Amino acid sequence: MPVWRGSSAVPSVGPEIHLKYSFLGLSKEHKQGALEALGLARIMLREVLSVVNKGPMALTENQLAIMDYYFVFGGNPPSTNDFKVIQATLTMTANGLMGEKLNLKITEGGDAYGYVNKHDSRFGLKEKLRSGVGLEKSRWTPGIDYRSGTLTRRGDIHLDTDRLETGPELSAKTIIHEATHKFASTADFGEKGYTDDDTGAFRAPGLKHAEALNNAESYARFVMMSFLFP
Q1: Could you tell me which residues come within 8 angstroms of residue 133 by beta carbon, excluding any fewer than 6 positions away?
Q2: Reported pTM
Q3: Architecture of 16-228 per CATH?
């Protein structure tokens, strides 16, 4: 299974937090909650990546166990190539999440805690025409669609108010999850790739090692758990 990575995002500050559907009752408290979650997501990524950048030997025994579980190493130490894939994915995600053009939208009543839209020729004439004449939205980021292998662009990160109500840690995890989609072209693998909020365990068995290296939730959980339980 190929792993494709690529991003020109530069770490910076100054994210824009938008209440996408304010007429439905979104409040300044939701905006503040999202800002707190984003700040925590950045801290988590920065701290965990600083350790990962020092190599496998810098990880604690607990962090190695967390990595083993979420990337399905089966009790084996990470290979040099696998570790580089994880490091590169986290780096792309951190760079993008700290970028000055980051746009986080808070939504309400969605089917998911978070999402990132994809924009390419399969999604309508408008997107195709905009791309064809060089009028893509400045916040779109290039990537590849895991299922089809085609190039695509990903839009803004959306965070649902239902997720904000579960607290900053899980909200930060969801932001990291969506950021890996946007900035590092990760994918979702259904119930076997998602985790339970309370236990952190995968909801269903069956995630393969190669899939885990492309699984957005694996990265988000690894970062959160390694930060909270080093």
Answers
A1: none
A2: 0.85
A3: 3-Layer(aba) Sandwich (3.40)
**Helix/strand/coil (H, E, C) string of the chain?**
CCCCCCCCCCECCCCEEEECCHHHCCCHHHHHHHHHHHHHHHHHHHHHHHHHCCCHHHCCHHHHHHHHHHCCCCCCCCCHHHHHHHHHHHHHHHHHHCECCCEEEEECCCCCCEEEEEECHHHCHHHHHHHHCCCCCCCCEEEECCCCCCEEEEEEEEEEHHHHCCCHHHHHHHHHHHHHHHHHCCECCHHHCCECCCCCCECCCCCCHHHHCCEHHHHHHHHHHHHHCC
Q: What is the pLDDT of residues 138-174, one digit of tens each?
A: 567 777 777 777 777 788 888 888 899 999 999 999 9
- Residue type at position 223: V
* Structural domain boundaries in the chain: 16-228
Q: Could you report the per-residue pLDDT of 8-25, keeping only the tens digit for each?
A: 333 333 455 555 555 555
Predicted confidence at residue 124, as pLDDT, reads 54
